[in-house]
Amino acid sequence: MNTNKRENVAAYSFLAPALILLGTFLVIPALMAIYYAFTDYYLLTPDQRQFIGLQNFMEIFKDPIFIQSLKNIVLFVVFVIPIQVGAALGLALLINKPRKGNIFFKVAYFSPVVLSLVVISVLWLYLLNPSEGLINSLLANIGMEAQPFLSSPKQAMITIVFVSAWQGAGYQMLIFLAGLQNIPSTVYEAGKIDGVNKWQNFFHITLPLLKPTSVLIMITTLISAFKLIIQPMVMTQGGPMNSTMTPVYYIYQSGFSDRMIGYASAMTVIFGIIIGIITLLQSRLTKEDDM
Amino acid sequence: MKKVMFLTVLVLMAIIVTACGGGNESSNASDDEVSLWVHTSDETPEGEAMQSTIDRFNKEYEGTYSATIEFIPRSGAGGGYEDKINAALTTDTLPDVLTLDGPNTAAYADAGMIAPIGDYITNKDDLLPSIIQQGTYDDQLYAVGYSESGVGIFYNKQMLEEAGVDLSTLPTVEEPWDWDQFMELSKTLVNTYDTAAIDMGFDDKSEWLMYAFSPFLWSQGGNLVSEDGSTAEGHFNDENSVKTFSFIQEMVKEGYTTITPVEKGFHTGEYPMKFGGSWTIAEMEDYPDVEYGVMPYPASPDTNELVSPSGSWQYAMAASSEKQEAAGALIDFMTSTESLTEITLANSVLPAAHSVVEEVQDKVSPQMNVLIQQNQNSAHARPVLPNYPQVSRVFQQTVSDAAYYEENSDVQKLLDEKTGQMEKALK
Q: Membrane spanning segments where (chain B) (predicted)?
């Protein structure tokens, strides 16, 4: 009992820093957001906050911009996940083989991850300028018409997909690389003895053994993709015609520009539930595959 | 046992949280010492001028009042500073006097954050009408702007002359052009240079679109919302709005302006004209090869009334201040002719009072004088509404959407839709 107690004390004191930080910056704010979601909290009159029940939620479901932002983010996620994860896997395979200059490529592929998203967005803003940008000059050289990119309601989101995938892929590439290097060489040797070709090698050995890494990457990429805000904020301000407005951006705008903390909190709660459900579904699906 | 430990941890957490939230910063100052928060840095010319004004105040009122200034530089669109104001509001630690951007007047006054200061300001008659308009909510003066801003049309003299335009026929503040004349000029320039005639800043999808484009609507005799600010229906979608937004759409459709202007296109001789303000004059110092002039805003052909953008940061008194007399005296001092002249010249901005115009007009460039003169005659403050951020955003989106002339060729339909959104913001 005595040693038990002492061990408990030790355990909790080791846990305390993490618990305190998590509690202060995650649990308490999250609980507060849930509470505010049921109030009419206006940023400038915190004292006149009143409980208004489900009113915020009813309004949100009638808010065309919020609905539009949900559609936009689904479009973004559907495109960005395969492109970004596929690119990451491709890059990881490329630099997995020992080759001269590998370090250079590793750094080159990873460097966009280190740069600030704001810097990247501004950079692409210049590259994508319809009249003077480098991308359109390149297109002109191969005989293609100049594209409006970010200033077209049809192309803006897709453009952001490519910029985001280009920026983020380096990070997933590193994780894939670690996964690849964890695959024991004995498996490949066994394959060699059985005479598998390159494709069989990839689809029947590498991919299945990368499964745990892939699941992790899918889930983390999915969640961060849903949280898209900086790229549209810097590059398009949610436009043209709200085509790049995302839920997190709209929450930010409602809370801090429009000062409707209650309304923004309610959107946060709804959006949190949506992401939670999707994450659950995804982990269910990938688990079933295992059996 | 485990429960006990868990509770201890929770209590610890609670202690830390409350300890972080405590700390009352502003209440330890003495009775006659006024605290002032400003949004700029002490290294900018604006901040230096403020510091020097505070030093003069402290000398002049030695023994009666004193003031301290705290610089809280804002980031970009005002992030850092307003976050701090919002946090101070929640913890009741606002300073006695603070700066606020023009469009925030109504929201701050409506929330009871700032107090009316009309009784303390001695030179109200001297202040420009746009300054009074911007600081007045519910018929009471809540804030006084210490400078003004404005937009004029910057033109490249050489490019215009080469296109066959006689510069002496260009409009003046006394005799402005209407939209049709302006489009005629744009057409000439487009035909000569095969590029957009004017960079109107369509790529800046923020407050700029409200600030720079709303004067067209006012010139036409229209408005965003009703006089009492209660409804947009029948105002933002009336005939005047349709005419105004059709003009804006026409500018894009005819290729007179572009929604994706090249960065610094005017500065480098790509576009012959640009919407610019006093900051553009400062920028142009780096491009000495471009000889440029400034002409006033074009007016609606129906009214021929010149209306130009305006608005800037102001001083206001926190309603929570217990030293209202001293705070009032400070704001009055900081908006006196001497103080305003100091900050206007230091910061190269437009004057906020008639007397300051007299003081500075011989000391600034002819281009600046066009902006000053236009501002003095035709400046219109943005609407003073508590829900300004939402109203402004709907207006910005309307301008931005109208520029997509293929998708939104029916301007009336676009305005009806946007009026609905504005209506929602107003309730």
A: none
Q: Residue B310 has what DSSP assignment?
A: -
CATH code for the domain defined by B152-308+387-426: 3.40.190.10
Tokens 């009784």 appear where?
A: B119
Point out which residues pair with B152 in neighbouring strands: B276
A237/B205 CB distance under 8 A: yes
Q: What is the DSSP string of A220-289?
A: HHHHHHHT--HHHHHHTTT-STTTT--HHHHHHIIIIIS-BHHHHHHHHHHHHHHHHHHHHHHHHHHHHH
Q: Which of B138, B97, B110, B149 is nearest to B335 (CA)?
A: B97
ipTM value greater than 0.85:
no
Nearest-CA neighbor of B208 among B372, B423, B382, B402? B382
Instruction: Tabulate helix, strand, coil % of chain A (nearest 5).
Output: 75, 0, 20
Alpha carbons within 13 angstroms on the beta-carbon side of residue A76 total 30
B291: which 2 tokens? 């000889």
> Which of B1, B16, B262 is closest, CB to CB, to A131?
B262
How would you write the pLDDT of chain B (427 residues) with one tens digit per residue? 556 555 565 565 555 555 544 444 444 445 689 999 999 998 999 999 999 999 999 999 998 999 999 999 876 554 678 888 988 988 889 999 999 999 999 999 999 999 999 999 999 999 999 999 999 999 999 999 999 999 999 999 999 999 999 999 999 999 999 999 999 999 999 999 999 999 999 988 789 999 999 999 999 999 999 988 899 999 999 999 999 999 999 999 999 999 988 888 999 999 999 999 999 999 999 999 999 999 999 999 999 999 999 999 999 999 999 999 999 999 999 999 999 999 999 999 999 999 999 999 999 999 999 999 999 999 999 999 999 999 999 999 999 999 999 999 999 999 999 999 899 888 7
- Cross-chain Cβ contact A257/B389 below 8 Å: yes
Strand partners, B156: B292
Closest CA–CA distance from residue B390 to any residue of chain A (Å): 6
The single residue listed with the structure tokens 């281009």 is B367
A-B contacts at Cβ under 8 angstroms: 79
Q: At what angle do helices B239-253 and B207-219 cross, to 10 degrees?
A: 120
Q: Which residue has the tokens 């290097």?
A: A181
Token pair belonging to A46: 């915190």
Residue corresponding to tokens 């995302």: A246
At B4, which helix (H) or strand (E)? helix B2-21
Domain with CATH 3.40.190.10 in chain B: 30-149+311-380, 152-308+387-426
Which of B9, B108, B259 is facing A151, going by the closest CB pair? B259
Contact by Cβ (8 Å): B356, B344: yes
CATH of the domain spanning A41-290: 1.10.3720.10
Q: What angle do CA B277, B280, B281 make, to 5 degrees?
A: 100
Domain B30-149+311-380 indexed as CATH 3.30.360.10: no
